[in-house]
Amino acid sequence: MRGRGGWAQIWVAVLLSAGACSTEMANEPGSPETTATSSSDIPTDLASLAGPMTLMIVATNAGVLVGTPAGDSQFYDNGDPGKLAMAAATAGIPVCSIELGMLVTPPAPAGAVAQSVAAAMDQCSHQNLTSDLAELRQLQTPSTVVIVGANAAETVGSTNNGVNYFYGADVLGMLHAARTLDVTACVVAPQNISLPMYPLGATPGVSIPQALASCGL
């Protein structure tokens, strides 16, 4: 069992303009189009849009692909951030998670959509997950799961055969690192996860078996 606290982030180079607009603004000069996508084959769709500047930003409710060769922003709402991140990884597209935040998506007003995308891109450009990525790489196996609660995060199926706990800013840091490395994440927040308090027993919260079952793992 291991525990760690403190802020850890990764710099994601977003060499893109901060603007994105809805289709009602697509004809304005220099205003990239924003499109809502409901593709049944997201990996194939993403592979066709991948380019040197593409980035998939994953939020709790949806994802947005920015920097496509056409210069537009494609929204995906499949209800599963993990599957969307995996599809992006399959297509060779870098992933930035802004969970547990949400994106404003079409058909919301164009200004709100543009501001949301710009804010998400700014958040990605200022992330620094260096320590969390290094930690997760050390723990990562094909069966590793990062469980994220409101009070802490924990990894199971790790290289050290133990349960590893993370607190403070590392809670979201480990979630974002998991999306970056395409490691399975199980989010039970806003519920707490049960934490060990030896020798008095565990604090109340979602147990590891309960968390894995709730995520279908």
What does this protein look like?
The strands form three sheets. This protein has a five-stranded mixed sheet, sandwiched between helices. Helix 1 (42-49) crosses helix 2 and helix 4 packs across helix 5 (170-181). The chain is built from six helices and twelve strands. It has 217 residues and is of the alpha/beta class. It folds into two domains: 23-125, no CATH class; 129-214, no CATH class.
Concise summary:
With 217 residues, the chain is α/β, with parallel strands linked by helices.
Question: What is the strand content?
Answer: 15-25%
Low-pLDDT regions: 4-32
List SSEs in N-to-C order.
EEHEEEHEHHEEEHEEEH
N→C terminal distance:
21 Å
Shape call? elongated
Average predicted confidence as pLDDT: 84
Q: Roughly how much helix do the residues carry, as a percent range?
A: 25-40%
- How many structural domains can be distinguished in the coordinates? 2
What is the CA-based Rg, rounded?
A: 18 Å
Strand line-up across the major sheet = 1-9-8-7-10
- Estimated structural class: alpha/beta
Question: How many helices?
Answer: 6
The major β-sheet equals: 5 strands, mixed
Please give the number of β-strands. Answer: 12
What's the structural blueprint in terms of helices and strands?
Blueprint: E1 2-4, E2 34-37, H1 42-49, E3 55-58, E4 63-66, E5 73-76, H2 81-90, E6 95-97, H3 110-125, H4 130-139, E7 145-148, E8 153-156, E9 164-166, H5 170-181, E10 184-187, E11 196-197, E12 201-202, H6 208-214
Parallel strand pairs: 1-9, 2-5, 3-6, 7-10
Antiparallel strand pairs: 3-4, 4-5, 7-8, 8-9, 11-12
Helix pairs in contact: 1-2, 4-5
